Amino acid sequence: MKTDIHPEYTESIIRCACGAEFKEKTTKGELNVEICSSCHPFYTGRRQRPSAGGRIERFRRKYGIASDEGDAERESE
C-alpha cells in the first residue's frame, strides 16, 4: 500500500436534524444529516400519512370513485 496518498481517517460527530448525535470514523469532518435511524419511519415503525389533497384524492372526488378504504369495508360485508 502506498504511503501519503490516503485521506486521514478520524473520529467525527454526525448530527441529525432530529437532534441525535453519533460518533463514527470518517474521512470527512463533522456531518449534518436530515434523517437517521432514530427518526426514519422504517426504523421507528411510524408511517407517515399522505396528505388528502393529492392528485389521486382530487380525481376520486371529481369522478365520485370511492377510496380504497371504503372498498375494503364493502368487500368484507
What does this structure look like?
This protein is an alpha+beta fold and 77 residues long. It has two domains: 46 residues, Rhinovirus 14, subunit 4, CATH 4.10.80.400; 30 residues, no CATH class. Helix content is 29%, strand content 21%. It has a three-stranded mixed sheet with strand order 2-1-3, with no helix packed on it. Strand 1 and strand 2 form a beta hairpin. The chain is elongated and about 70 Å long. The protein starts with 9 loop residues before the first strand and ends with a helix. 0% of the residues are buried. The mean pLDDT is 78.
Query: What share of residues are in beta strands?
Result: 15-25%
- The main sheet orders its strands as 2-1-3
* Poorly predicted tracts of residues: none
Helix content: 25-40%
Rg over CA atoms, rounded to whole Å, is: 23 Å
General shape: elongated
Number of strands: 3
Distance between the termini: 70 Å
Biggest sheet architecture: 3 strands, mixed
The CATH topology of the largest domain is given as Rhinovirus 14, subunit 4
Structural class: alpha+beta
Using the 3D structure, state the CATH architecture of the largest domain: Irregular
Total of helices: 3
